[in-house]
From TrEMBL:
UniProt-recorded name of the protein: FMN reductase
Family classification: Belongs to the SsuE family.
InterPro entries: Flavoprotein-like_sf, FMN_Rdtase-like_dom, FMN_Rdtase_MsuE-like, NAD(P)H-dep_FMN_reductase
UniProt-recorded Gene Ontology molecular function terms: FMN reductase (NADPH) activity
Species the sequence originates in: Aminobacter aganoensis
Ranges annotated as spanning the membrane: none
Phylogenetic placement of the source organism: Bacteria, Pseudomonadati, Pseudomonadota, Alphaproteobacteria, Hyphomicrobiales
Keyword Chloroplast applies: no
Amino acid sequence: MSAKLVLGISGNISRPSKTRTFVEHIAGQVALRSNGVSHIFDIEDLGPSLGQARQLKELEPTAHNLVERIAAADVLVVGSPTYKGSYTGLFKHFFDLLDPAALRGKPVILTATGGGERHSLIVEHQLRPLFGFFEALTMPTAIYATNRDFADGILVSETIRARAQQAVAEACRAIGIPENVSLAA
């Protein structure tokens, strides 16, 4: 089994963040199971050119490198904090710059975080349609976590961990990783 590249994209613009922690946890589990590597970046890592860019060519070289990593990734784990019932504006702006065919067929695990349960459908009503436009292969299990699912910046909810493991298993099946490969919690 060849090593896989798992890329995590966190839509937050501040650090530390629960969203990044969540994306790191899930991407790390996919990488562990696939004998791969995971790399995580925040929208902030795209640099100041993102906000003014109208085309990919207007992004700084660092941002172009991240776009190339997205194209090379075997699996994406994307997440955004919830702002007014949706993903962050810069998160959406970044994906607006990508070619519509850039994510076609790429396995994607959808995640989001928020202060409470009232925004839990962000993954189904906001993120899934966005990645559906790109014809990405979104995993059936999407995961939303609230503030109470974390303690001291660490994911502690066993229910959310179980949902994450289910999404990890789905992504691993999508990239041909056998079912009998065990996952660490």
